[in-house]
Fold each of these.
Amino acid sequence: MEQLKVRLPQLGALALIVALWVALTGRGVIHPLILPAVPSVLDAFVELIQTPETYQHLRVTFYEFAVAFAVSLSAGLAAGCLLGWVAPLGVIFGPLLQSIYAIPVIIFYPLCILIFGIGPASKMAFAGFYGFFPIAITCMEGVRNIDPNVLVLTRSLGAPWYRLWYKVIIPSAVPTIVAGVRLGLILTLIAVVAGEMIAAKEGIGSRIAWASEIFNAPALYAYILFVILLIAVINGLLAALERRVQWE
């Protein structure tokens, strides 16, 4: 019931946007080059999902995304656990992480191209860098906010450090960490697509840039819709996982 109360306003807002879109394009208020008609976008979307080339580009995007997320996840968890457990390091580097995270990370993309070149490595480095921060920050907060009395009790019972992490710290921090991993995963995927839009010959982002360069508005909106639906599916799966972890 609670989810229905949330979903209904969201669906209503979506229906309002589509209705406004239909009204504006139907009356010719906005030029089709800027906002094409809904039927033309849907036709382009159907053609897109029926074209084998789309899935070749999707495979490239997912490969870059998988490598980048593996880097951001491993580095983020390692840094977050270290900064959350060692208080002096958290005091020094925690605010630094949060400050960098507040900066528009796209400004670091030219640096990634300079170091790794214009190929896939620069996209993976940039996306991994982008996804690192929310994972590291939430992991740090999750470890830092564990009840110290529980840690003292566990230590007093003679538990070794690895059992302390396995039985107390990780289970207690998991709900917070999962939220950060969810955000980091979505940001990593967005960063890969953004990097492909700027400089790439393959990948879904390159197709968005291609459609924009040739002024093919229906194809452009179709590819954007494709990415939005892809992110929505991944986000929905991660949200379900997050609710399950928090419930447990």
Amino acid sequence: RTMNFLRYTFTASEQKLLLLLSFLILTGSLLHLFGYTAKEEMNMLMADSLETVLSEDEEMMLDLRIATLEELMCLPGIGEKRAQDIIDYRNEHSFIDVKQLMSVKGIGVKTYRRIMPYLIAFGDSTVSAASSRSRSTKPAMENIVNINSAALDELCTLVRIGPARAEAIISYRRQHGPFSVVDDLLQVKGIGPKTLELNRHRIKL
């Protein structure tokens, strides 16, 4: 009956045009649905990856060959300019040995030794051996960190707090307001009792 209605209501050309429009609308709807689903799945995968990183209550190590500007800024004694100098050097020469870090302008032996425990060792075997021994003796830092106002680079000076956890602290602060007590840090993804106790004496509100 529907076909009879179309046949007597529309001409043959109008019927073809109507079918074409229906096909285009259906196709567009399907593409939009699948596109939205793919985007949602990608967002879920990214969220899961971040949660996996934050769920591990252990010290993060940086690889000079791929570290970002923000990650490098979390190294002791490395500000934004020095971090950019490292990236500029990497773009021009490429790091094949951790010791090359001392070739970057402004990074001497003293700064190098402070940074080494935070880095993944590669290249010279003697550097790798030294790094392996020093991983468990991370240089002591005595600065007091206000977790309600500290920026990312200052939060990164805390033991076992890398860029991802520092950003998680800042995000928690934005969503829930300032921390009321130090133990509230345990509510932040990736910060467990061990990390909290290692930093308790250096934290203020």
